[in-house]
Write a structure and sequence with these properties.
203 residues; four-stranded mixed β-sheet; four-stranded antiparallel β-sheet
Length: 203
């Protein structure tokens, strides 16, 4: 009787852990900081001899809210399968982008196909002024204040990949200084007013 009761308690505890989001490897799924957004979901059809074969295509954006984001397309006979494929592939192919004070370092334009997206840094409190796939990518990467404008196609695929192309052109001040070879000059230069910069006074 005691062995049966112990087994029932284990089953109840297992159900509680699964409902709280615990994974099989022991990690807590609720603690993972990740944002996944399904930007586009369409049904496709392939004409065969016996008729049409329907499947689904999903465009998914996955980011860690700290500068990393991945975009992928998944196809499957079921909606959930297509989304899972796209999300898994996006997690494996995340790219790191520079984010400074919850916004982008400088103004930039990204192009992909006929899509063209313009982005500009914004002051704190502005929010993400974007829509559709552009907003999904910027929110997933961790940008909280930015101004954007779609200058090309409204196709969600082109907009998402154009946004990633714009993020790929971003550089911080330190990176630009290193590229120009000014990093050593900046580090060697000391601030005025220090003791080592003052000339000795003749007595």
């Amino acid at each position: 009787m005691s062995e049966k009761t112990f087994t029932q308690k284990e089953a109840v505890a297992k159900r509680e852990r699964s409902s709280r989001g615990f994974r099989r490897d022991g990690s807590d799924a609720a603690d993972t900081t990740e944002k996944m957004t399904v930007v586009n979901l369409t049904r496709t059809a392939k004409v065969v001899k016996g008729g049409k074969r329907f499947s689904f295509r999903a465009l998914v954006v996955v980011g860690d809210l700290d500068g990393k984001v991945g975009v992928s397309i998944g196809k499957g006979k079921q909606v959930q399968l297509a989304i899972q494929k796209a999300a898994s592939h996006a997690r494996k192919h995340m790219d790191k982008y520079p984010i400074v004070n919850s916004t982008i370092p400088h103004e930039t334009i990204g192009k992909f196909g006929t899509g063209q997206v313009w982005m500009k840094p914004a002051a704190p409190g502005t929010g993400v002024i974007a829509g559709g796939g552009v907003r999904a990518v910027l929110e997933a990467v961790g940008v909280k204040n930015v101004l954007t404008k779609n200058l090309g196609s409204s196709n969600p695929f082109n907009m998402v990949y154009a946004t990633c192309a714009a993020l790929g052109t971003l550089h911080t001040k330190e990176e630009i200084a290193h590229i120009r070879g000014a990093g050593a000059v900046i580090e060697s230069a000391s601030a005025p007013g220090k003791e080592q910069d003052r000339k000795p006074v003749a007595k």
